[in-house]
Please model this.
Amino acid sequence: MQPLKIYNTLSREKEIFKALHAPLVGLYVCGPTVYNYAHLGNVRTFTSFDILYRYLTHIGYKVRYVRNITDVGHLVGDGDEGEDKIGKMAKLEKLEPMEIVHRYTNDFHQVLSTFNLLPPSIEPTATGHIVEQIETSKNLLEKGLAYESNGSIYFDIEAYNKQGGDYGKLSGRVLDDLLTETRDLDGVGEKRSPLDFALWKKASPEHIMRWPSPWGDGFPGWHLECTCMSHKYLGDTFDIHGGGMDLKFPHHECEIAQAKGAYGRAPVQYWMHTNMLTVNGQKMSKSLGNSFLPNELISGNHPLLEQAYSPMTVRFFMLQSQYRSTLDFSNDALKAAQKGYKRIANGMRNIKRMQYPAGIVSQPDEKQTAEIQAAIQGCYDGMNDDLNTAVTIAHLFTLLKKINQLYTGSLAFDQLSEETFQALKSTYITILEDVLGIRVELPENWESLTEGFLSLYKGFKEARKYDKVDEIRATFKSMGLLIKDMKDSIDWGFEE
Model:
């Protein structure tokens, strides 16, 4: 099996993944700023890293997955001036800031649970690490990499680069170009350079969220929070840092500078970034009216949606595109994903109930065996090629074809060895459930309910009460299901 390769944003190449302290892996992903409801961009990003977390665990690593909650310091406009996003929402809704944080953190957790994302190992908050942020600011001041200005502390980009730093390397930005781009700004205020960024900001009188510091009451800079939390739980240098591509600059660029300055080492081996969402080819945004929340997608309650789409349909849809590719939402694409998901789910139901018949003498068909083995290998090759879930899903459909042939009898069990059958069954279930996080969506007690309906169906059919037969069929169809009249039995499945 080929080794796992990850596209490293820092080197702009796919690199073989080598853990610093195998089998341990340190993974940090920038979490949400909890001032509003979780959006689909959040879901796409965190689903991508959920897959990484699952797959690393599946291939034998012990992963410490840290995903933070930003509950202070992220200002409107993502810069160093303006209101705190959470503080602004608190004023609008006349609530305490921590009420806002609690409400939208709960929403975030609920949304991710709906889409079957695993919780991280640690979920630290920025407000829970104020002490560490003050200490790191002191550290950078002592090293001449930061300066105080009117009660605020700023990171000094020029001093950092003079000490061997390489600000701009991650994002590919050239320092001179960045300076040219910012020359038109109305001065630099308290900063020595417009590129310098806040480690600690002095709180204005109207600023709600504030803490005492050696420089007066203030609050931490957005970039510093992630540096301090990742360092506390994962050390000076850890394996993987992830986030959306919109965080590459300036957020992640600033994280690297702070960490190198404070701890003397590059903080991360592999930087990973997910791509953006579009709707019918346009960038998703509120201003264009083409942005919808996850619950709107599930309910279908949005002008751009022709119907509702289940959580697993949406998850399956997202996984049909590699995480570094743009993901375009459209009704046609979602409907195609719905069909694909139902086919996959039917295969899951069927293979879980299949057992290799006892006592048969197998005469393995070499062609069938080779096709199954190649598809199993293909599932792992896809995942090992920078988590290319689209390739893995294509090979799962090859395995699904074999499952369906076994189910209908067009492929006899004795054409496969028991070992090949078990490999087919194990791979299909494990890759779908454990790695891709796809589950069969059914109400509680569904199996006993359907068995009762199918028993009635069989009785009506034998009694030639075809009006009742049609009635039960219509009931199943209304739920997106169909009844299958098999040669020796009656079964049900998802309508594909």
